[in-house]
Amino acid sequence: MVRVDMVTKYGNTINITGKIDSNNAKRFEDELLAAVGGDADTVILDAKELEYISSAGLRVLLKLKKNTKGTVSVINVSPEVYDIFSVTGFDSILEVKKAIREIDVTGCEVIGQGGNGTVYRLDEDTIVKVYRPTVKLEQIEREREFAKNALVNGIPCVIAYDVVRCGESYGIVFEMLKSDTLGHAMQAYPEKFEEYVEKYVALAKELHSAELDENTFTSIKTVLHGRVPRLARWCSEEELKLIDSLIDELPDSKSLIHGDFHPGNIMIQDGELLLIDMPEVTIGPKIWDIAAVYRDLISAPQNPSDEIVSMLEKSIGMPKELILKTGYRFFELYTGITDREKLETYFKSLGLIYAFNVVLVTGSGSPRAEASADAIMDRLLRKTVIPNEQTLRQLLSSR
Fold first, then answer.
1. CB contact set of 37 (below 8 Å; sequence gap of 6+)
2. Same structural domain for residues 274 and 134?
3. Cα(162)–Cα(393) distance, rounded to whole angstroms?
4. Distance of CA 244 to CAs 12, 193, 215, 227, 348, Å?
5. In order along the chain (399 residues), what is the average pLDDT of each group of 10 residues?
6. Containing structural domain, residue 383
7. Are residues 219 and 279 in the same domain?
8. 370-374: long-range contacts at Cβ-Cβ below 8 A with a sequence spacing of 24 or more?
């Protein structure tokens, strides 16, 4: 039987149910084509109640595909039915998506918590990152794809399994055998502090020496240019042109930019460091990523706001004193600068890049960003970035 339901999000969605085989394939074809109508651009088939489909049923879907101008998607497919699509190769002909399984994290150990969600240990072999309800499913699926792309390109990261639903939120299940965040480990084993920081720096250098391309991840320049138009609410046309010209100074490097590379987003498993949080991975010059490390490990822990510091401590999994200690040691090892006065001068350079980044994320939609947008433009763009334009150009153009 074929039922047509009106679903606002997808438009017309066709529910296919029961078992489809040679005995009822002709009736299935008649009802399906009648439901789709002529000249369909795209077709979405909801297979939530589909128990089985034989080769006869698959041939009906093939005929549908040939008569459809756009894509034919089969969603909410059970694992058993998905195997049929996969084995026959129909998952390369049609867009086939598994049903999202439900999980319950009640009583599970919390091993990490950040701005986007919370990481729980499901069992000895797996963990799940449960995102906040405001994070859209498309963003989560994109992070899973990023993790997959990073892994096949030799980037040390965890294996991302399926996307799941947890109450009103979505999450990603990862394979992580007997692991913990680097932040927790650094606090729990102070005698290993130097060893952990050395591994942390080694991972950063590995990411920043990677040779990737835009077929794998988007260029940071493309992402940043895409943010400029939304700044028109606060900036003049001349200011927007200046911002775009500063972005153009970034070299076309192929390094991996994590964007949130702090110990709370890194897992440690059998002594190896692996990335877990990858929602905004891009490629570009390493200086952009290093400025983000400065933000998290040097600037933020010294913020006068107790609320911001508390959020940071919860996200990274360490008290602010240890965060700062880690930050200074990280930059000493990463840059080779051991003189504290010279290091502070280097931090001023990173702070200028960080200020420019804050300008670019203004208007991102968060209530906090919207409320402070005018002040940010005045304090950071007009009183920090513009007066130091030439210095910033030199910094951004470095690799």
1. none
2. no
3. 42
4. 41, 41, 23, 10, 22
5. 40 81 87 78 86 90 85 88 89 86 89 80 86 85 84 85 88 80 93 97 94 82 94 93 96 91 90 85 93 96 92 91 97 96 96 94 68 86 95 89
6. 180-396
7. yes
8. 373/233, 373/234, 374/234
The CA distance from 77 to 48, in Å, is 6
In angstroms, rounded to a whole number, what is the distance separating the alpha carbons of residues 206 and 227? 28
Same structural domain, 265 and 151: no
Pair 153, 225 in one domain: no
pTM, to two decimals: 0.77
**Which amino acid is residue 281, in one-letter code?**
V
Q: What is the count of structural domains for the chain?
A: 3
- Looking from the CA of 379 toward its CB, the CA atoms found within 13 Å total 8
Residue pair 236/295 in contact (Cβ under 8 Å)? The answer is: no
Residues 28 and 121 in one domain: no
Token pair listed for 161: 């399994």
CA pair distance 307, 29, nearest whole angstrom: 60
Overall residue count recorded for the chain in this entry:
399
DSSP string, 53-87: E-HHHHHHHHHHHHT-SS-EEEEEE-HHHHHHHHH
* Pairing assessment for the beta strands 43-46 and 72-77 based on DSSP bridges: parallel
Query: Is the domain of 275 the same as that of 381?
Result: yes
CB atoms near residue 311 (< 10 Å): 16
